[in-house]
Amino acid sequence: MSKFQRFLLKRLAISVLLTLVAVSVIFVVLRLLPGSPFEALVTSGNLNQEQIDEIRAMYGLDQSIWVQYVNYLGSLLTFQFGYSILRSQPVWDVLEPRLINSLILLVPALVTTAILSSVLGMYAGWNRGSRLEKFSIVSTTLLRSTPVFITAIFFIIVFAYNLEIVPALGMRSIRATPDGYIETFGSLDFLHHYILPFTIAVLYYSGDFLLLARNGVVEKRGSEFLKLHRAKGLTEMEQLARAGRNSMLPILTYFTLRLGMIFQGLILLEVVFSWPGIGRELVLAIQQQDYPLVQAAVFIMALAVILANLLADVLYAYFDPTVSTSGGGTA
Amino acid sequence: MSTETKPKAELYKRVDALWTTVRDQFAFLRQDPMAFAGMLVVAAFVFLGLFGPYLAPHDPIEHTVRGDGGSVLRLAAPSADAFFGTTAYGKDVLSQFLAGARPTLIVGLFGGLGTGALGFSVGVVSGYYGGWVDELLMRLTDLTFSLPFMPMALLLLTFMTPNIWLITAIIAAFLWKMPARVVRSEVLSVRERTFVKSARASGASDLRTMLYHVAPNVLPIGFLYTAYGVAWAIAAQASLAFLGFGDPTMTSWGRMLRQVFASGNMRVAWWWVLPPAVGIAAITTSVFLIGRAYEEVINPEIQTDQ
Q1: Which one, of B39, B44, B164, B166, lies nearest residue B104 by Cα?
Q2: Membrane-spanning residues where (chain B) (predicted)?
Q3: Which of A85, A134, A331, B64 could form an S-S bond across to B90 if both were Cys, CB 3.0 to 4.6 Å?
Q4: CB hemisphere CA count around B262 (13 angstroms)
Q5: Cβ-defined contact of A329 to B302 (cutoff 8 Å)
Q6: Which residues in B lie closer than 8 A to residue A307 (C-beta atoms)?
Q7: Mean pLDDT of B127-139
């Protein structure tokens, strides 16, 4: 077994273990919650004891905690999240469209910002001390340190309320009743609702990529291999391209990590824009104590992070053999 | 190492050195206009956090602003009666803004300090000992990386009544991972330096080596991440409050924003939105700008000889 394979195996085992621990923590936290959604049903007085027992049995709440735990693990492994208590629908049926609504907003935004701000960052780093560099650093610092909902509120006030260019909330206009994904996402109405949250997401994430790219190029600027390129007579832009290519790895790794954190990172964005995504659904489910929905949503978010971490570590080790593969991972 | 009998002169020298450091830092920050502006904002913010509630002309929640006719002023634009206007419930926005700085300061300060201290200790211990200690601690940081912060915090805050210290603790419990990793990687390189090795060779205990030889050399980066921790904590606290999971007994900037958002008055009452929003944005950005100025000093690779 090569060193890389051994690293891969170890990293894989750790990921599985982490998933197990994360899932157990969610289980324990949910069981610690006082009251249950059933109590609301019970205290409303419309159910007799028999019906209550029946419901409890349906959700497996009459069994011992260990049996519940094992069932819970089994159900997660097979993506059977059970029934949403308040929506009386299978959890997955509730979550799947919302997951897609989130992805359609966040993935294009993340890809766009990764490309645009990396290029801008490299250019800024190359022109160290220029006005552009200073401006881009201050503006992206402002954007990434300000909580995303505040940026969103400012933009809503300006573009939706005062200039009235775009709608302030929702994913489609209220009267739209599209059928299927193509109809939902392939319309001008959708685009009209899409543009503002998309822009906010792009701006919010731009800072980290820009600074990473800038620092990478600044570090490379003084290095020997660029002196060689300069001596060979390459133009400024060609040299920058070389320096940029050599600082791609941290950006790539960071992109993967961000992708994993995408759902949780923008819960606030979805809430501000009433975007029917998984983050907003989680907040609603918590408020309504819809446990099966909550545990499924949190599980999906945790799984995304764990998988992305795994991918980032592996990418790093694969592309940069000088990095010790004996653990540690990425910062 | 000689036996410690510190004469007074030695103590004075230390105090003097500390004072010089503080003055140097101040002079350094003044050179960078952005960092200096940030420092002024932070100073103003600390002042508001300490004295804001006493400066507030009215009680932020109890008092209702009334106009000349004695009627309650609801959603009134800024005027002589209320300099920052009133909320939909007839409360004084200025008073809420002044009082709302305190929870932001408390969570920011203690959340940041907690994050920094915890992360620093874990990083130093993990990097210094290596082996299974390192492995164990790093898997623990992996775990906090895997548990998504926002959802977990929301979950925890539903079954424990949110109060400001609980929120601070949750934030610190999730955010220490960042400094821990960075400090650890710094320690890994410091550990190999000659003075650490010679300290070990001359029989210094692990604890002593860590405290006197390793820790001081990674302290700057620890401070930097403590500062970032402050900004993260403030942002997290505001976000939680905005989602409705803040301390229900305290007026905070995040809570003000929640109220204006949830009441649907964001469209009209800009005077209710702007003070808390600008407050949060200004303080988090300022901390980051100061941090960036220091990062250039700490990370020698970004430093270039222009």
Answers
A1: B164
A2: 34-56, 105-129, 149-176, 218-245, 269-290
A3: B64
A4: 11
A5: no
A6: none
A7: 83
Mean pLDDT of B187-206: 76
Under 8 Å CB-to-CB from B229, ≥6 apart: which residues? B111, B112, B113, B114, B115, B116, B119, B172, B175, B178, B179
Task: Over range B176-183, report the average pLDDT.
Answer: 84
The nearest CA of chain A is from the CA of B28 a distance in Å of 18
Residue A271 contacts B, CB cutoff 8 Å: yes
What's the rounded Cα separation, in Å, for the pair B69 and B46? 38
Cα A213 to chain centroid, rounded: 21
**CB-based contact, B285 to chain A, within 8 Å:** yes
Query: In this complex, which of A21, A29, A268 lies closest to B239 when CB atoms are compared?
Result: A268
Those residues with Cβ within 8 angstroms of residue B169's Cβ, 6 or more apart along the chain or in another chain: B114
User: Looking at the complex, does the CB of residue A166 fall below 8 Å from at least one CB of chain B?
Assistant: no
The ipTM assigned to this model is 0.82
Place of tokens 């650490």: B196
Query: Best of A141, A266, A303 to disrupt the B interface by mutation (most B CBs within 10 Å)?
Result: A141
Question: B 99-128 residues with CB below 8 A of A?
Answer: none
Residue type, B253: W
- Choice among A18-32, A146-160, A175-189 with the minimum mean pLDDT: A175-189
**C-alpha–C-alpha distance, residues B238 and B255, integer Å:** 7
Burial B141-150 (b: 16+ CB within 10 A, else e): bbbbbbbbbb
**Contact at 8 Å (CB) between B241 and B123?**
no
Phi, psi of A129 (to 5 degrees): 85, -5
Name the token pair of A303: 């799984």
pLDDT for the residue numbered B306:
33
Residues 147-176 of B with CB under 8 A from A: 147-152, 154-156, 158-159
Q: Is-contact B116 B231, C-beta < 8 A?
A: no
CB B34 within 8 A of CB A138: yes
pLDDT tens digit string along A89-145? Answer: 888 888 888 888 888 888 898 899 888 988 888 888 888 778 888 888 888 888 888
The predicted model scores a pTM of 0.83
| Tokens read off for B150 | 């926002």
Rounded Cα gap, residues B260 and A153, in angstroms: 11
Q: List the one residue out of A191, A211, A201, A111 whose CA is nearest residue A149.
A: A201
Q: Which of B148, B270, B288 sits opposite A264 (nearest CB)?
A: B148
